Amino acid sequence: MVTVEERYEHLEKTIRGYNISADLGQIRAAFDYAKERHGTQMRRDGSPYITHPLQVAQIVAEMRLDSESIIAALLHDCIEDTDSSYEDIAKQFSPTIADIVDGVTKLTRVKYNTMEEEQMENLRKMLFAMSKDIRVILIKIADRLHNMRTMEYQTPAKQKKKSFETMEIYAPIAHRLGMQKMKWELEDLSLKYLDPVAFNDIEARLENESRVHGQFMTNVQQQIQDRLVDLGIDNATVYGRVKHPYSIYRKMYGQEKTIEEVYDLFAFRVLVDSVADCYNVLGVIHDLYRPILGRFKDYIATPKPNMYQSLHTTVIGEEGILFEVQIRTFEMHAIAEYGVAAHWKYKQNITSTGGEGAYEWIRRLLENQEDADAEEFIHSLKIDMFSDEVFVFTPRGDVVNLPAGSTPIDFAYSIHSAVGNSMVGAKVNGRMVGFDCQLHNGDIVEISTSKSAHGPSRDWINIAKSGEARNKIRQWFKRERREENIAQGRASFESELKHAGLNVSQVTDPAVLPAILKRVRFQSLDEMYAAIGYGGYTALKAVNRVREELRHMNRVAVAKAAQEAAEKAAQEAKPQPPRKVKSEKGIIVEGLSNCLVKFSKCCSPVPGDEITGFITRGYGVSVHRKDCPNADPERNPSEQGRWIKVTWSDDCYDSYNTSLEVICKDRPNLLVDISTVLSACKASVTGLNIHTTADGFALFHMVIAVSDAKQLQQIIRKLHNISSVMKVNRPAG
C-alpha cells in the first residue's frame, strides 16, 4: 500500500520534471498545513482524507500548472471541510491562493429555498471566480476527476447523483475549455454509474475484439507511417485508438445501432511539426484511402471556440472499414488534450488581470444571466455552455458559433442587440427563410433590418435557442413596452391567482402587501407585473411565493389570536355557563368558550378521527386521537379531571397537518414514486426527513396536509401498493 509520504514524494518528482523553479518549500508547507487541518478525517475507502488533496494536486501537476495551482489544490478543501478561513490561508500563503481556494469552495453555509437556487449560486460563484482566474476551474475539474475515480466507495444514490452532475456540468466545461482527455475520462466514469449494464457490455465487447482491433490499427498505422517516410515527412507520430466507451454509447443508444454498426469505431492521429505538413499529410491520407464525402472538417482554418485545431477526415480502408484520421501539429495536440492548461500564461509567472479574450465567454455568460432566476439560469447555462455547437458565416465570411438548433434570431442577437431588435427578415445561403429555421454548419446567414421595425415579437423568446438572445429580447420588452408588460403580467398573475383559489384583494390588502412584495423580491406590484410581462419572472412562481407568505402570515395571526384568547381566559374570574362553542379550528369544546385549541403533535388528529381534549396549563385545550397512548386517563390518575369532551364541527379547515412513517426497502426512484402518490392524492408535503440504514432500509418521516381521515386512509392504501414499501404508520404517543 502506498503511504501518504510516498504519494507526496511522487508529486514532487512530477513537479521537478517540468518546473525546476517551482517553490517546493511552499508546496511542502501547504501539504503539512492541509495534513494538520484535515487531521483524523477519513475517506470512504478508509484512507486518510489528505490523500484526496494530494491526488488532486497530482492531477494539477500532470497538467503542468504553476506552484500556486499546486498549493491551492492541496488546500482546496480546507475552507469547506476544516476550521480554516479565507483569512488564515491568505496570511499563511497568499491572497491569490486564498482567492483560488475560495473560488473552488461550495456555498455550504448558505441555506436556499430550492436545490436549483443552491446549484445556481454555486455555479455562479465558480464561474465568477473562473472569469478572474482560470485556475479555479482547472482545480475544480481535477477535484471532480479524482472523486469520480474513487466513486465506487459511495452509496448507489450518491454515485448516480454525482455522475449525473458530472455529465451535465463538469464534462461539458472541460469540453468548453478544450480539455478533451479529461472530458473523455469524466464521461466514461459517469457512464459507469449512470448505465452500468451498457458500460460493462461495451467494455466486454471491446475486450473480446481487442486482438482483432489491435491488428487492424497496427496495419493502418504502419501503412501511413511508411508512406510519410517515403515522402520525406520523417518527424511524424502516428497512432490509433478505439473510441472511448461513452462515444460508442452515444452512437449505439442515441442512434439505435449495434457496436458492429458503429463504423467510425477507430480513430488515428498524425502529429507533425507545421501547419503545411498537416495539409501535406491530408493529401497522403486521401491518396492512400478513399475519403467519405461530407466528412471532412478543417478546424485549423476555422478553430473551435475552445481553441481546438485539427484536420478531420473519415476514410474507407482496404477491408471496407471506416475510420477517422485527425491531423494536427504537436502544439495543437497539446491544446487538444489539455485545452487552456496547455498554453496557459501562468507558466511564465505572469499575473492574470482577467482580461484574456479566450475567457470572455465566461463573463458574457454571467452578464446574460444576471437577472435570471434559478431555473432559467440552469436551463440557459446548459444550452449556452454545454450544448453542441453549430458554425455559421456572415456574408463577409466571419465565423459565428451558436448552440446547436439555433435560428436566425440567435444569429442576429449574437451580432448585436440592435441587429436583432430591428430584424425584419433573414436569408440562409441566399434563400429567404422563416425566423424559426434551424441553422446548420457552414450556412451563410444574412439579416435584413429596417429602421421602421417594431421590435421583436414575444414569440421570439420561445423560438430563440440561446440564453443570450432570449435575455436581449426580454431586455427590449422591459425597456420599450413597460405599460404593455404591466397589463399582460397583471392578467397572467390574476389568472394564476384564481387557479390557486386566491383573489386579488388578499394580495393588495395594505396590511399584507409589504410582506408579499418582500417575499417576491420586487419594490411594487407594477414592477412584478412588468417582469412577468416581459418574461423575466413567471406568474406561477409569483403566486407560489404569495401563497407561502399568506400561509405564514395566517399562522402568525392564529398564534397571536390564540395567545390573546388564552390570556383573556386566564384573567376572567367568573366561570362561564357550560355550553358548546365552535373554535376557529373546526373543534367544538364542551363547556368552554373563547378557548385556545391546539392539535397534539404526538398523534396529529384530522377530521374523522375519534378525539378527546386535555385542558393544559395556560395553553388552552390540546386535542388528541383517542388511540394515542398520551390520551389514556389512567396514565396519570392525578390529572383525570382535566380530560374534556371535544368533537369535530361541520365546517372544518380545508387541510390539517398529520404525520406518517413509511418503512421501505431502499431502491432507486423510491422518493419519486412516493411523491407521485402524494401528488395524485392531492396531499401537500410540509415536512420530510429521510434516513437510510446500513442494511438497505429507508425510513421516511413526513408531515402532510390532508382534508380528513378518509383522504389519509386513501394515501396510506396507495403507499402500501408501492413496491418495496413494507409498512406505513401514523405515529402516536
Tell me what the structure shows.
The chain is α+β, with helices and mostly antiparallel strands. The chain has six domains: 195 residues, Hypothetical protein af1432; 141 residues, Beta Polymerase, domain 2 (2-Layer Sandwich), CATH 3.30.460; 93 residues, Roll (Ubiquitin-like (UB roll)), CATH 3.10.20.30; 75 residues, no CATH class; 74 residues, no CATH class; 74 residues, 2-Layer Sandwich (Alpha-Beta Plaits), CATH 3.30.70. It has 29 helices and 21 strands. The protein is globular and about 110 Å long.
CATH homologous superfamily assignment of the largest domain:
Hypothetical protein af1432
Distance between the termini: 53 Å
Structural class: alpha+beta
Q: Which band does the percent of strand residues land in? A: 15-25%
Oligomer: single chain
The main β sheet shows up as: 5 strands, mixed
How are the strands of the largest sheet arranged? 1-2-5-4-3
Total domain units: 6
